[in-house]
Task: structure prediction
Amino acid sequence: MSSLAQPFSAAAGAAAYRWWALIALALAQFLVVLDASIVNIALPSLGQELRLDTNTLSWVITAYVLPFGGLLLLGGRLADRYGHRRLFAAGVAGFVAASAAAGLASSGTWLLAARAVQGASAALLAPAALALLTRLFPEPRDRAKALGIWGAVAGIGSAAGVLLGGVLTSAFGWPSVFYVNVPVGLLVLAVIPFLVPRDRPGRRESLDMTGAALVTAGIVALVAGLSEAERAGWTSPWTLTLAGASLALLAAFIRIERRTANPLMPLSVFRIKSVTGGNLAMFLIGGATTGLFFALSVFMQQVLHYDAMKAGLTQLPLAGALVAIAGAVPAIVKRFGTRRTLAGSLLLFAAGLAWLSMAQSDASFAADLLGPSLAIGIGLGGAFVAGTELAVSGVSDGEAGLASGLVNTSQQIGGAIGLAALATISSSRTNALSGMGVGESQALTGGFAWAFLGAAVFAVLGAVIVLTIKSRNKEGGGGHD
Result:
């Protein structure tokens, strides 16, 4: 038994408190996912007060998910080296401090810097939290239940962010969407020492800082290139330069990972087909989800002229459907298998997005938005739970931390790239329609329709990949098939 596992098996009270520990860990994960979406409803009022244009507003989201996704693998390695509970606590503390700083922001630069620190802190706590979960629940049946709850929390956080963002912005102003993290984070910091035993640091292996720098720089260059394409066009010299730099940096990262003794991301893990399929699916889910909530929030406020409160409350059916289905997913997986459940959920998610793309500038909620919202919520809830389970299945205990970091990395990097791509597609379509003499409201509607359809394409691709890449094993529950 590894030294990391010994404290958990030796602590007599760990089993009695592990479900409470799961609540605390999941609560921290909820904040991490929530912060990628809760800001969406607050963007118009935030942009007006801080004088930020639409392109800069998208970076309020991107400044968070980029360092989050880019540093997750490094965060997982640091947790393995210095102790999962210690890094989890450090990540929560940094997240709380950065959230308070974001709420106090008086300029766009200040806000974006605080959001970047939030993302970096999330990259410390998220993989440590999921690794702690796998240690606390070594039995396959209990671990499946715990992972089901974990995946549901991720989906609920994305959906609830828009709802809470609307309520908080309307009642207390945009800084409240950041301040809400402070008391919750402090509560988690207070209870976690009593619920999770201290784990021993791992071996002091050298850290792959070169790999971390290359992958983070490559992702930043890719997202910046997509954002530049929105402003200057796909063939502009700066867009092409950033795209080329991204490809070169990511290729160098792969070359380094193949040669270094202690790689940040051992490429051998992708020989496990469930890990490969699950992470590709979570990458596309992240892209579709982040783009969806950004576009839907702006569509409701700029085109349908909903205020922040109404825009948030109209997300309640989506969030409710997601919560309802999340609890049923483990039973569905047991009957049909993880892979089929995930593919079916993604196709339903895509159908809801395609339905939403038909909404016009005079759409009513009951007739045009309620149905798509329910389909999206059900599909997204199933996809988050099944996707998380697939991505961490089939790995050894020694690879649990790596798998945990990978699934979070895939989702967050997918979110950053998906948002940049869908925002660029939407803006290009809107500008094209405006150039044809179409009115502003109709042009915006046409642009958002393309964003929703683009997100649907992401979901369909995810379903195709999951059905194409079969697992090499049949472990757990109803098996992956």
Summary: Residues 1-13, 471-478 have pLDDT under 50 and may be disordered. The chain has two domains: 6-196+264-468, 209-263.
